[in-house]
Amino acid sequence: MANDGDYVLAADIPTLIAEKFEPIPEYTERTLENIEKGIPIDAMNYRARQLSNADVELLTSVFKDCSLDFNNILGCTESEYKLFQIAFDSSENKPDWDIFPTFTNHLSEALNRQWNLCAEHSIQLERAAKNGEIKILSKQRIPLTTLEPGAIISREHAEKYLKELGLSLPDAPSQNGETVGNDDEGSQDDTEPNERGYTVWLRKTWVKENCTTGAPFFNALKKYKGKEDSLVIDWWNFSTKGLGVKLKTNTGEIELSRVQIQKIVSKFRREEKERKNLSSDN
Where is the composition biased (Acidic residues) (predicted)? Predict the structure, then answer.
């Protein structure tokens, strides 16, 4: 969290709250939400339809022959589902239609929940400023009622606001620039406290790519695929999953869509702009 000891960036407060109450999982595999049958229209197209009772009986029989329980298929992971797809495709009783799975992307849902909560608390923070409960200031110390870029809030007011939510600010830097308090809460290389390993790598790579905007940065990630010291495992711009990238994490792998990469870069750009505004004020 960017600060100058007595003040912190106002926009960091909603972010801190959202990251606390809607944490992003390091890696969560997609799970099966629904399964339908695909009726062929022509050689290239299918029409999705809900499974009938007869369809369910057929699939139950097909999967039972392979020691798979169709009754427990919903909620299985994407890798577990592959066993069902293989069994279906290789079955002697395979019908003249296909099965169409729909998966839940838990990471995407978690990101959306966090962003939505951050937006809600941004509104609440502005409302508190309008009601005179806290003071939001511009870098020139002009009172504000909106979270403009570079807007700041005193640590005293921020602590008071967060205390009502059962939270507190990270420790302030000491005069020598080092963080006072638990070393685990500090950060190096201008990264955010508690920032995940893959996000740290994305931030450093973004700086290396001259802080480009989201879409060009996503395209630039392609050249890092499989490179030494790179976290990019795979990169694609056309598939059934849409545009995305797969990164190595501390505990496994994570898939991010291009939209998610763009949102992460937008956060980097906003934080960088706010840091520069705060630095120029000092």
Answer: 181-192
